[in-house]
Structure formats: structure tokens, C-alpha cells
């Protein structure tokens, strides 16, 4: 089988540390490959090398004659075109217009839209429609699901499932990758590994690789320590060193220094502010229209403290408008909204409007009135305490050089992390998250899901990431068009099941087969018979916690077994006794909780 694409011994730098060194990979006909890695690891750069848009410093890119390679970039240049349709048709025969129209219908973009008035999302959809219409032997897709709603993601997923052409995907959408891929390319610290399994198997493979790496590093550290001890002791013992062993020690130290440290996970933290009232939002019979477009009609919803309410539906249906009505920022045409007491909201805006692209990361944080520390130009307030701005940025994986760089130089994922840094610097009890998952890597998404699971406050969430919705949401508001907004218990999969697993691409005007307008969100405790995301996480952690408490109790019992301890060190004896009682109580509580959650998981 002749490969569609080969990269041989590719090396690339941008004036600093190498992005890639001696990288080689092959893409075969029919390959369905997930390209994964941390934000900033070089995924988009590697894809541009694969597309022939970036020349490597050394190495070869080989594409056999007659093989077409198509690339969908994140920020397409449409400067020379008048309309989105002109751009999408570029390079195609006029007889192939139907392909662009079909893709435009599935992806929801208007070919007649002038380029100068098109949003970034519309430009990306036009680029995707162009690639789908070209139908090359190899498709390179860089974040194709960004700015697509769930219906359009479903259409694209179906198209890629049906195609016999090869493709390589970069995406943050777990469900999308899991449904489509059969192999995984993983970029980690300039090295590219390949596994002949889809994204479903990636995290287990990654964790095993890192575990083996840590074991190798530990063994090497022990060997270096032993050899170093021999080198020191050998001077006095023999007055003559074995120079071969000294050189071997130098080689070991060189090998150890060449091991590139893994990038840490962002040290994100959500601090809950004062408790809000039990009833956070009470909306009654809301209606809102803009001209001929009806956003909602007679919509009612009660949000209790601790609820995680997701809003889903096609782009443009009015999800952000509805949340802004619920927050009191937009007046409804009719109906009432009552906000609860003691609310301290924090908002993640999908447009990143809270970030000034011309200012540096440093200036964006220190210029925020809520974060500014009077008289301290290099400090910001973080959850009530002053902190150096660079130190705080490092917690979100930004280095000192980036702190002085303009925000517009950041990648999409880095901008999302910076906005999270702003939100998480202040206490809150009501989070409004409008598309927080765009551009975030798998590890950061995992951490964000955990933090939302543990957050004491209330969450209003807009997302098109089905996996994220299933992990986080306890209630889903499905906005189905023409003023219909229906409340369902649970996340995305729960909504689909309650809705009779309706085709998401069907006519939004058609009524749902089973569910009717609901006036109140079901309390989180009654929404699922199984475990919530937080309970699942706790159940996974409890065995380790029980083992730790058991080991600590054994050590304390061994210490107190000394019959002379009380007479010799009465203070130490008293502290050990108190610690033993506390740990025995904690162990009993942990065991009871494990039993309760295990039974609940079985029942669910």
C-alpha cells in the first residue's frame, strides 16, 4: 500500500527550542487519525507541515503524484473573495456548486454572505464546506467542530463516517474523536507517538506511558545517586578513581538532563463565595422576540442553589440571550425574573470580549479594577489575597515571556485559559459559562470538569460538547427554535433519551414526541438514579483514601505500643491519641460512604 503522506526526519524551530526533532510519520489510505496533545504542543504547526504550508528546517515531506491533500485551517484568509460562496467554490468546477450548497446546508452557512460582514465562525464553516466539497484523498481538519452547533457537528460526524477518504483530526470534542478515529498521533514534548487505536484508548495509553517514564526516571535517579556515592567514597578509599565509571556517571547525568519534564496541569481553583439563597433564579412565563424572531415563549424555570443548568440548541437560537434574561441583563417582553439573595456571579464570555487583544497578559490582569492591588503594579488580588501577577499566570501554564506578550498572540486555548484565570481569581457563587470548552486540551477539560463537580455554587452553561454536557449538567434546557424551550433532567444523553432519541437534524418546529414544556428544573438529587459526576469521582478516590487512613492508623498504633511513651513524652502521647481517634472516625466515615455510593452505583 502506497502511503498518502510521509514525513521523514522533520525538524523545526522558530528561533528557540525545537518544536519537532527527527519526527517521522506516515498516513495510509483509509486512515482515521486523532492528532492530540496539550495546548501549545505544536498540533496546528504539525498539521501545517503535513499540508505543505510550513517548511521544516530539515527533513522531507513526500506526497505521491496525483494524491490530493486538503487542509481546513482555524483562521482562513478570505481577503481576495467577495462572498463566502466565492471562497468555498474556489478551485471547483461550476458543475460542483451543489457540493458546496449541500455542505453549506449541513454546516449552516450562507454562501451569499459578504466576506467583510462574516463572523469568524461563518468563515470557518465556509472553509470546512470548501474542504468537504473538494473531497481530497487526505483531509487535514484543525478544530472543525469549533463554532459548530450540535446539529452541525452531527452532520459532519455522519459525513466523515461515510467517507472512504483518509483524514487527520485535531479536536477538543471527545465524543467526536471517539466516534470517528481508529488511530491516534500524540504530540508530547516534540515527540510524536502513534497507536493503532482510536481516541477512546488514548488516555489509558498516555497514563501508562507516563507511568513507565516516571519509573525509568526514578531508576535513573537511584543509579546516579549510587554512582555518585561511589565516586566520592572511592577518593578516600582507593586514592585512585576508576575513570571509566566516572565517565559513565557523567553519561548518566547527561541522559537525565535530556529528559524533558512534562508540562504540569494548570493549577486552576474555583473558590466559592458566600452562600447564595436556596432559590437562585425564578423565571415565570418569559417571552422575548426580536422582530420576527421569537427567542422564547411562556418559558418558566426555577434554578436552585447547586444546580448545573445547560442550554443547548442550534447557533442563533438565542441561548446567550436567554441566559442574559435570566441574569437580569436583558428585559423580557413579558414575564418576570426574580434573582435570589447574595448572588456573586462570574461570567465566561465566548467572544473573549473581556480580554483586550492589544494589551499584554500582565496588563489584562492588573488593569481589571476587581483584581488591582492599590500601589502594587506587579500584584493582583487572587481570592482575597495579593499575589504576584507572573506567579499567578504560571499557575495557568504561562511563562514570564508570555506575560509581557499581547493577548492577540495567544492561541485559542491559551486565551480560554487566561479568561479562566480572570474568573477564578475572584470568589463567586454563580458561574455563567458561555462555550468554555472551545480550544481547551483534554487535560484542562478534565480539570475544569472536576472543579465544576466540586463547586459549591450554581452553574449556567452553554456548550456544544456532548461529553462535557453529560459529565457536568444536572438539567438541560433544549432551545428548539420558534420560541420553544424545554427543560429536561440530566445532561445531553439524558435529554436525547427523554426526547425519544429524536434526530437532532429534524425540523425544529416539530414538537418533541414525549416531553412538554416544563416549568421547573428537577432538583439535582432526584434527576438520576445512578451517580452524579461528583459522586463517581468520589467513589474512585475513596479506596485510596481508605488505604491512606489505614496506613496512618497502623503507624499511630505502633507508636503508642511503646509502654514508656506516656511517661517519657506525655505531650506526644496525647497528640498521637487524638490523631488516632480522629483517623479512626474518618476511616469509618469513608468506609460508610464507599458502601453507600457502591450500592447506589449498582442500583443505578
Q: What value does the average pLDDT take? A: 83
Helix content: 40-55%
**From the helix content, strand content and strand pairing, which structural class follows?**
alpha/beta
Number of domains: 5
Described by its quaternary structure, the protein is: single chain
> How is the main sheet built?
6 strands, mixed
The percentage of residues in β strands lies in 15-25%
User: If helices are DSSP runs of H or I spanning 4 or more residues, what is the number of helices?
Assistant: 19
**CATH C-level label of the largest domain:** Alpha Beta
Architecture per CATH nomenclature, i.e. the level-2 architecture of the largest domain: 3-Layer(aba) Sandwich
Form type:
globular
Which features characterize this protein?
single chain, alpha/beta, Rossmann fold, 5 domains, six-stranded mixed beta sheet, 41% helix
